[in-house]
Design goal:
alpha+beta; single chain; 12 strands; Jelly Rolls; 39% helix
Length: 223
């Protein structure tokens, strides 16, 4: 896990003026390969899901972004391989075009530093994720994903478990690089072992127990 350097980072919002807020319903596209983005976005409310299409046509989940998080930085490179869509009803985002960002950065140079820090931090997060692909088996990758999503989107209850909205097995498969069927297998295994319960309404994760399982498996990985 990367050290927490949040207090050392510049906040892009200190240098960006308010912009128009756009509302989206669940599943509604914010941008796509057919309508590529030329903007940087900020989640104001709700959640946004970003996926990328590989050369082989496979979809990979880049991430799920929550309020006060930026997304769409691929617009700096003019990439047209990403989808961004509302993860739930009531998602609200604010947007600034790349041209607007460039003009603002001329007047407020620290905006460029803030965005560079954001992109660098995100790159380091992706590097850690790639490292997990090389050293972790699928069960450990799934456990890490569940723990991460619970930290970002979950709500801790009095009994110590964490509740979060349901994540489809297909979505989890796109995040950890496997098939829906394999995710289904390990989700059922985690449920039998008592690490989680899930339904169409939510996921209840016993995060501390799963973290301990992951620690033991990481220290003594299976052959």
């Amino acid at each position: 896990m990367l050290p927490d350097t949040t207090s050392l980072l510049e906040d892009p919002l200190k240098y960006l003026p308010c912009s128009t807020v756009f509302d989206y319903t669940k599943g509604q596209a914010i941008y796509s390969p057919d309508q590529p983005s030329a903007s940087i976005y900020l989640v104001v409310d709700g959640k946004v899901k970003v996926r990328r299409v590989t050369e082989g046509g496979r979809q990979v989940l880049v991430g799920i972004y929550i309020p006060d998080e930026f997304f769409g930085e691929s617009a700096f490179l003019g990439l047209s391989t990403e989808f961004a869509e509302a993860f739930e009803d009531g998602a609200k985002v604010m947007a600034w075009t790349i041209r607007e960002i460039e003009e603002i950065a001329k007047l407020r140079p620290k905006l460029a530093i803030a965005l560079l820090q954001l992109i660098t931090r995100r790159s380091m997060d992706f590097s850690s994720r790639i490292e997990s692909f090389s050293v972790d088996n699928i069960a450990r990758r799934l456990a890490r994903a569940l723990i991460l999503f619970s930290e970002r989107m979950g709500k801790e209850t009095e009994d110590g478990s964490v509740h979060m909205r349901p994540l489809t097995h297909e979505l989890l498969a796109q995040y950890i690089g496997t098939s829906r069927e394999i995710v289904n297998h390990y989700m059922n295994q985690f449920r039998r072992q008592g690490y989680l319960q899930y339904s169409q309404r939510d996921i209840q994760l016993h995060r501390g127990a799963l973290q301990e399982w992951l620690r033991q498996k990481t220290e003594k990985p299976e052959e």
